[in-house]
Amino acid sequence: xxxxxxxxxxxxxxxxxxxxxxxxxxxxxxxxxxxxxxxxxxxxxxxxxxxxxxxxxxxxxxxxxxxxxxxxxxxxxxxxxxxxxxxxxxxxxxxxxxxxxxxxxxxxxxxxxxxxxxxxxxxxxxxxxxxxxxxxxxxxxxxxxxxxxxxxxxxxxxxxxxxxxxxxxxxxxxxxxxxxxxxxxxxxxxxxxxxxxxxxxxxxxxxxxxxxxxxxxxxxxxxxxxxxxxxxxxxxxxxxxxxxxxxxxxxxxxxxxxxxxxxxxxxxxxxxxxxxxxxxxxxxxxxxxxxxxxxxxxxxxxxxxxxxxxxxxxxxxxxxxxxxxxxxxxxxxxxxxxxx
Length: 340
Known about the structure:
Number of helices: 10
Structural class: alpha+beta
Number of strands: 14
């Protein structure tokens, strides 16, 4: 299935009588359950705030969510349509798979379908976090500003747009009016909430297309050093390209260029997924302390509010490559952000 067909299948109306969901997680609570002390949604984990405040105990339901985070206003669809799609098509299959992998240490993926389930979740999780949402919004606003600037300054471009509007039976502003409105700030680009929420889905599809050919390896930790999670749990760094003058569909179908290989995502306290293009790597590897430390610091590095762990402290890699503890890693990350 190509990216456009996949996207349109996700936007088909859903039949449900459930109440509309308002409290919407950008990191699935079912996924976060794998990092609690008992591996359940109603169990607790330790929250390490990125602002340096004291560690607290909390539950998956109470972190990494916002009210109406994915809500949309589209005729014929429920406000929580995307929340339902994410839950049914991405989160539920992945959380079931991840629990199976966590409960059976050393188990490989048994089929290509299982790898696809994991990749789909990784792509959604990378696209859905607030940083990615902001990156998509930045692209929309940047393109809009460029469009308005060209509309106000290029008679040829204004004429082209006005002609297209006339073909649709619409009136269009004169270039003088466009110049005045743009200059006064009355005419500007705003990325509305529905566009941004749907943009999460489009960005998910774009990421999935880029990672589809990568190889998958599972790292299993024996403890006492465990993998941790955060509110930005996927170590995938990318550039988002989209120029509406080169590609009229750039905003609808953004292109993603990966800047990282391998890509790491913790699956549960004792297992992490590594996507890579390295040949002859086993499908399953035992995660040594240094490997757990690496995944943990990468998981922490983009966290906005907190890191979630089954233990009150955990191991992570510090600057220079030495192993350190949770508060040391958080302090280093905060100092780097302060420098930026």
